[in-house]
From TrEMBL, chain B:
Signal peptide: none annotated. This is Sugar ABC transporter ATP-binding protein. The keyword Calcium does not apply. Keywords: ATP-binding, Cell inner membrane, Cell membrane, Membrane, Nucleotide-binding, Sugar transport, Transport. The keyword Chloroplast does not apply. It comes from the Bacteria. Residues 4-234 form the ABC transporter domain. It comes from Vreelandella nigrificans. GO terms for cellular component: ATP-binding cassette (ABC) transporter complex, substrate-binding subunit-containing; maltose transport complex.
Amino acid sequence: MLLVITLTAAAIWIFPLYWAFVTSIRDESHVVSSDAGLLPDMLNLTAYSDALFNSNLLTWYVNSIGTSIIITVTVLITGMMCAYALSQMRFPGRRALYAVVLASFMIPTQALVVTQFVLMNDLGLVNTWAGIILPQLIVPVVIIVYKQFFDAVPKEMREAVLLDGGGEYTLLFKVYLPLNWGITTALAIITFIMAWNQFFWPFLVTTSENMMTIPVGITQVRDTFGVNYARVMAVALLGAAPVAIAYLIFQKKVTEAVMISSGVKG
Amino acid sequence: MTGVTLKCVDKDFGSTKIIDNVSMDIAQGEFAVFVGPSGCGKSTLLRMIAGLEETSAGAIEIEGRDVTQTEPAQRGVAMVFQSYALYPHLTVFENMAFSLRLARAPKQQITKQVNEAARILKIEEQLDKKPSKLSGGQRQRVAIGRAIVRQPKVFLFDEPLSNLDAELRVQMRLELSLLHKQLGSTMIYVTHDQVEAMTLADKIFVLRGGVVQQSGTPLALYDDPANQFVAGFIGSPAMNFLSATVSAVTTAGVVASIEGSDGQSLEAQLLDTTLEAGQKVTLGIRPEHMHICESGLSTTVEMTENLGGVAYLHARLMGGQKIVIERRGERQSHQDESISVWADPKHVLVFAQDGQRLR
């Protein structure tokens, strides 16, 4: 019985993906016709060739990969260093600073969008990678998760390094970071996926097609006669493919990351 | 030459004094042991010597150099932690080479020093393994090896054997003793286990409430404790303490009647006393100095612990005070038997009501 329920749920979940794929390999005229069935009845790859060669898809790929990698690396480095300072160093205002980090976690990003847009505009960063990247570098959950893990490293480990002649950088990069490679990998994957899938902010800050990321670019896939569903689906599937492949490879780590960042596992 | 000198050292945590005006001299090459109950400040004192805790007042000198304000790594000390504190992501070799690599020592020198330490500790076979693949004893050796590689002036051990099982603890204790002889370095060892203190130390410092109660060789502390705390802490089973009242003062010492024992008394030798009849004192007698005799203090044996070579008779005096009697080669249980016990006056120690020893 449980198996039947699980299979039904899986079928319901996968249907939109299946439908997107079936639509993408159909002729556009057939997509909206009333006699279009559920099964794939043709293999027309025009939408894919159009998406790859007659759109800016490759440019969007480059933009998505570039911005996502920069966001991931920067978020991890800054988050890790901030968490290390909050966890291991003693300075006045440490607790207040951590409270600010926690508080920023509670502010919805949408609430800041207008301010951020005005700021980016004033700085002349609209339609630039910097404009896409900068507001996405604030990820307090990375700091909170790292701090939680750094807090758990035994105090003696720190003292052993100090006696061995190491300083704070040795501690962070030669001990605390290697000891937490697992969580670093998990956070890297989840940050990358979040950056890749980000739509709202890049949609606002980019108006030039050459600066768009894949999720934003999908909205530009239309021709003179309006929306071309087959091509839209082909671009959507091609856009999602790298993340889907990455997910399949790092499935275990992603699940771990989601559990850690949601507080299920610590 | 002095190895480590502490001059009027204090440690405060807020308004709480953890270490109170401690002064000590540890000679170069000496094996010193800080011993005392939990919370007595022994680990704090060790960490102050290491530089891991700031010193609130006073001065710490290592081989004549004032290191009170010196960074831990510059003090010439190496520490072995209770939890070993090995870097789990590094191999044994990398763990041992860590400090030398940080100091940018030449590769050849690193390999030579690590291999030499591994040879001394017989862990050559484990050099490529990660700490998680090692047993407790092997991890402890690696932790000691990591200290040896640094060639420190002073080795600091913070309860290093407390995570090991009893058998391994005895073995490691012997090995530490041999290692000290082999290296000839100054070593300071913290433990709450007085057996470890007695077997390892050249000099013991007994601490209580952040104050050194007494220091000296293990046997000096055992035979001639300065106060009731040291007398009770050193020795296993602990010294018997009997509340008594001075009934007579003689030229050789005092006669004291045991409380609640219907006038039964014990004699104690004292060289010089200001005691007077009627004063309350505490008599201290080690279990091995209590002898069964025809007439003496009447006791009833409540339980016997027979370890084969030695037996401990747990008995109760008439007034309810408990005593332990040690018997070599005892084969009778004496359970529920009434026996009389006696102690030679020269082995009966007298403590004033404030716990200080009267000699």
